[in-house]
Description:
The chain is α+β, with helices and mostly antiparallel strands. Helices cover about 25% and strands about 35% of the residues.
Amino acid sequence: MYETSLKVRFGDEDHARIAYFPRIVHFFHCAFEDFFDDHGHPYRKVLDEDGYGWPAVGLNVDFMRPIRFGEILKIQVWVERLGSKSATFGYRAHLAGKTAALAQVTVACIGMESFGAVEIPEPYRSLFAEHLQPGHSESLKER
């Protein structure tokens, strides 16, 4: 399982002084980019040179506790499902070990020139397979 951290900024809060829910989804995407970068596949290179994009085609998020300005949010990333042209990533945002949000995001693999679905190429398929943990999101919800 991969983990990254980010600091919640002032601009991430809404009027209620908690992280605005679309920002939390953005945090998950930041972790997705870090996942690629930290495994030797700079995300910009994946898009611009390798020619593969990963648009979200499905999203499920459970919000469990508030996230506030100044907190350090840790985000765990794993692969829930690996298909031929898509993958579902699991995310757990936590503060001091307590789950703040869980998400599942399904991404399609597309060719950046055609914007059509393509088979997930190596080395991404191998990277995703290394982080495959089916059902991990469900086991976290039960805790």
